[in-house]
Design a protein that fits this description.
mainly alpha, two-stranded parallel sheet, elongated
Length: 106
């Protein structure tokens, strides 16, 4: 199974360049080549290429780490969370709730 998303977010907030397997969850969080590197699932050659790229290019590692930190902080910010919950609630159609007198009559 795949580990939880929280360790990924913690690593990103800390400014670490992350390498993850592609999945619906990680694809929403990590922007490939910008805030992390995404592998094809179960592709050890992809993992090795990404590790070597980060080890050989410290500028790339630092750039990805800084972008990862900014992205994770933006995704986890309390204000952003509240805005997203509000957007979700607004997306639902509001139905009318019967008044107490109408409910009592039935």
């Amino acid at each position: 199974g795949q580990p939880g998303i929280m360790p990924l977010l913690w690593s990103m907030v800390a400014g670490l360049p992350v390498i993850v397997d592609g999945s619906p969850a990680t694809d929403l969080i990590v922007r490939d080549g910008r805030s992390g590197l995404i592998n094809q699932q179960k592709d050890i050659n992809s993992v090795c290429r990404h590790l070597l790229a980060l080890l050989e290019d410290q500028g790339l590692a630092q750039s990805i780490g800084q972008s990862a930190s900014s992205r994770a902080k933006g995704l986890c910010a309390p204000q952003r969370f509240v805005e997203r919950v509000h957007e979700i609630y607004q997306s639902f159609e509001v139905s009318t709730v019967p008044s107490s007198s109408a409910a009592a009559a039935s």
